[in-house]
Design a protein that fits this description.
mainly alpha, flat
């Protein structure tokens, strides 16, 4: 009986080996589509070390022409021949030689597609460009003041932004729309500034005011109202991740919720209503305990730093501070760089921990005040 079992096991193993061999040797039929089958594979598995931010051995694999160009050690492929170093490295049984060096090796089907693409000439679109260095993105360049354009039909222009819009209108042979009716204009500004529509009485008063300053007077009145800070405070609190509660609904999270966090909420509303500058608000949220240690009101701004305080894991709290500071104030996702250099934002792992170092000395006092 044991002999029969061993015979069955050996047969199944042999069948599996033959199936794997057939799969590995199965030819790729038809022409390989570089854009659909090769480029996405290289992007997923190779760009981290051979892309725009890093070029190990001087080799870039983010465009067909850079692949054919090779690197410091010469060409990695010869169109029409499948015995080049690219195929050799991706199919090597030696883990110390095989590429990519991390993660699962390429499958036999993926290797076969790359070999077929090379054998078919390693073609790529003539107009394909390598990926652009994210550090050269316009958002990271020093702003340059440009001249406000002169326009022929600028009777409606009230400020430089209007002039640029009018210039584009003329370039595309478009005409500006007429001004919105007064009742529409009033509704828009009310919803924008305080989040509520005007009352019937406010609408009638605005329609009856024929002075050129009628609209400006409404704007000033709304900006001076307490509702302005409440409406726009909600907007900023979404960005800065304000919450009365820690956030998990399935456990009693009083332990991880900051009982004094409402003081930060009220500080945001008051700062907006007091016309405090955005730059000063940011300074106080990040460092009021350092720049104004005796100012209790400024101290309320540091609710920003404790909003994700986690009593049982300070490391999670630090990671949250770095991640959401990057998103809220820089528009960048720092959290990816916690484990490795960022794949598409110009942030290194060193940058991540340099930013985190600013928050590391912070300690929390939770007693009532």
């Amino acid at each position: 009986m044991k002999r029969h079992r061993w015979w069955l096991v050996e047969c199944l193993a042999a069948i599996g080996f033959l199936a794997a061999s057939v799969d590995a040797a199965e030819p790729i039929e038809g022409r390989i589509d570089y854009g659909r089958e090769i480029k996405p594979l290289l992007k997923a598995r190779c760009y981290a070390c051979h892309g725009v931010l890093k070029q190990e051995a001087g080799l870039r694999l983010d465009a067909g022409r850079t692949i054919r160009l090779g690197g410091e050690n010469g060409a990695v492929l010869v169109p029409g021949k499948t015995d080049g170093r690219l195929v050799e490295r991706i199919s090597s049984p030696d883990k110390s030689m095989r590429m990519p060096p991390e993660g699962e090796p390429l499958s036999s089907v993926q290797i076969a597609r790359i070999k077929a693409w090379i054998e078919q000439g390693a073609n790529s679109p003539d107009d394909e460009q390598p990926e652009l260095d994210p550090r050269r993105h316009w958002a990271f360049q020093t702003p340059v003041r440009i001249d406000v354009p002169l326009v022929a039909n600028g009777g409606w222009v009230r400020n430089p932004i209007d002039a640029f819009v009018a210039h584009e209108h003329e370039r595309h042979k478009l005409a500006a729309q007429p001004p919105a009716p007064k009742q529409v204009l009033l509704r828009r500004v009310y919803l924008d500034l305080i989040g509520l529509p005007p009352t019937r009485e406010e609408l009638q008063a605005f329609l009856a005011d024929e002075s050129p300053e009628a609209y400006a007077k409404v704007v000033d009145r709304l900006l001076d109202s307490a509702q302005y800070g409440e409406r726009w405070g909600r907007h900023w609190m979404d960005i800065w991740r304000y919450s009365d509660w820690f956030g998990r609904r399935y456990v009693p999270d009083v332990w991880n919720s900051a009982p004094q966090i409402w003081r930060w909420r009220d500080w945001i509303v008051k700062s907006l209503n007091d016309d405090k500058g955005y730059d000063q608000m940011v300074r106080e949220m990040l460092a009021a305990d350092e720049i104004a240690p005796e100012d209790d009101e400024a101290g309320h701004a540091t609710g920003y730093l404790i909003r994700n305080w986690y009593a049982l894991n300070p490391n999670d709290w630090m990671r949250s501070n770095v991640e959401h500071t990057g998103k809220a104030f820089l528009g960048l996702t720092f959290n990816c760089a916690h484990c490795h250099d960022h794949k598409y934002d110009p942030i290194s792992q060193d940058d991540y921990f340099r930013l985190r170092a600013f928050f590391e000395p912070i300690s929390i006092r939770q007693e009532r005040v």
